[in-house]
Amino acid sequence: MDNVNYTKPLKAEPNKRADDSIMLECLNINKSYGGLKAVQNVTFAVKRQSLTSIVGPSGCGKTTALRLIAGLEVPDSGSLTIDSITVSNNKTFVPPEKRSVGLVFQDYALFSHMTVNQNVAYGLDRPASESDRVSTVMELVRIQQLGNRYPHELSGGEQQRVALARALAPNPKLILLDEPFSNLDAALRTKVRAEVKQILIESGITSIIVTHDQDEALSLADQTGVMFNGQIEQIGSPEEVYKTPASLQVATFLGNANVLLGEGGNKVVECELGRLKTNSSLKGPVHITIQPELIHAESADSASSHGQVIEREFYGHDQVIVIRLNSGQIINSRCGSELIIQPGQQVAISLLGPVSVFPVGQRDIS
Ligand code: ATP
Description:
Elements: E1 22-33, E2 36-47, E3 51-55, H1 62-70, E4 77-82, E5 85-88, E6 101-104, H2 116-121, H3 132-140, H4 156-168, E7 174-178, H5 186-203, E8 206-211, H6 214-220, E9 223-228, E10 231-236, H7 238-243, H8 248-255, E11 258-264, E12 268-271, E13 274-277, E14 284-290, E15 295-299, E16 307-314, E17 318-325, E18 330-336, E19 346-351, E20 356-359
Parallel strand pairs: 3-8, 3-9, 6-7, 7-8
Antiparallel strand pairs: 1-2, 1-4, 4-5, 9-10, 11-12, 11-14, 12-13, 14-20, 15-19, 16-17, 16-19, 17-18
Helix pairs in contact: 3-4, 4-5
This protein binds adenosine-5'-triphosphate.
């Protein structure tokens, strides 16, 4: 494989992350299959040594976007630059093996007839036994002791790490991970996710991960792009996209936000929960999005009640209280598990932070 650089150190200096230079730039990328616009005007940049997540519902175009970056698909239009080299535009198309991009797939795609050592060495131009790079990368990914095993002799988490080691071995400029944790059960998933994040940081590689899992997208990345219908609707730090969603769709997808109707004013909104503070000013009829963890419920008499608890889902670390408001609308409150409120109780609701508002139809933002 081209672009193998044995002299470049694998480990980044501690805390040296995400300098401000750009490793990947996608500009107005489009890709259709027949009449279906799988990717539309996708524009974003990825800083060197950073981790970007792209999250969205099934079929929104995440994998297609990744395949376009890898060079496994040819865009209909737009330009792609990796490390200041144009790899795709209306005149140029650099094939995948010349892009210096590593891939980790959902099913890991390990070669079943090869040992771990051979799998990891696959993209290198010398055998595993002769390559310092294989041992360096296996140490980084903490699979040194597994070198002579075959993939069927490994757990899901170990297979995942071998796939990562194989992608890292040729020292690519960029690593792309497509739903890398979806084959792991819930308990292992959280552990492997944390390990992979640590490995990506230690290796100093620039990474993009696509997932449909909101927690994964927010907890792993330096920047998160939220994708619907082939388009990136919002991209920013996990805090930005979660706390100040750009649209109703982003708010409900990322935060499982409750949606109420109200009348917007100057940084406030009137609704059946009373007058609430808002993140922005929007006058007239609005949709209000309220993340469940912002809703505080406490038992109340019927005069001060906003609604009745109809269900309590207890998770141990926290709980979700399902409330039917006096209007009949159902909302969720996520709160600490020490609060004891049972179905049937009347509750008064207060808000623990500002809410977001979005126009119903088209209204002016003041
Ligand atoms: P998932 O999370 O389910 O993997 P996704 O967000 O990764 O979905 P894509 O796989 O990128 O979505 O697909 C986007 C759209 O493009 C879908 O409607 C899909 O059916 C369509 N599509 C993807 N690849 C092809 C193809 N080779 N030919 C025709 N349509 C395709």
